[in-house]
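Because discrete structure vocabularies remain unfamiliar, it helps to consider an illustrative case, giving the amino acid sequence and backbone structure tokens:
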Amino acid sequence: MNPPLFRPEPGAVALVTGAGKRIGRVIAIALAQAGWRVAVHYGRSHDEARRTVADIEAAGGTAHAFSCDLADEAAVARLAGEVAAHFGRLDAVVNNASLFEYDDAASFSGDMLRAHLGPNLVAPIVLARDLAAQLRARGEEARGVVVNLLDQKLWNYNPDFLSYSLTKAAMEAANTMLAQALAPTVRVVGVAPGLTLPSHLQSEEDFARTHQLSPLGKASDPRAVADAVLFAAGNPSITGTTILVDGGQHLVGFARDFSLMKG
């Protein structure tokens, strides 16, 4: 394995939300391989989070699991402090977890939008705010980074998953505003994957066919997304922008969300 382009400061800690499974797990393991100590957040995926921690530790890394309901703002406001209390510091937050439930204009409701707002928008902003506060308390030279997982569909809109898309669009705007508000202490960078893993609405066969519709012949894979997170977390000159990791998917217009297409 090639060494990472950017290595963290010795002892640096990264919190990854939703790190028990899927893309979050791959990001957590990649960060550990690059030298980060990793706080593995989970909501309901207790066993999967413990497995992520065990795999990191088996490879010689350091990790610990933290439970938090990202829809509960009060609980989210405690999470950064809990991580710092365990590890002694917190240097990075990767806002990976999000709610992804289907609705459209016909089925939209305020309740559905509010359900998405907590985990997809409020929690990432609260964690960014609390990271900045911790770093400022450490001294004027302390620096950190927030990486927000967004979605290529923000550059290629369709009307599916309306509430999810609205909260991700708001998060993309927050990406810019937080970069302005938290500089120079915290850099804020977005990473926008394309179709990466089958959703709960798509078969493996449909996923494989749809993946090939991107200009590069495939959209994104979890390791490519993790590599982009590593780059964003490590490059000290990037803030207030988003890296699209989607095989060019955002260049192709489709009337439906990729996760609903049959290839």
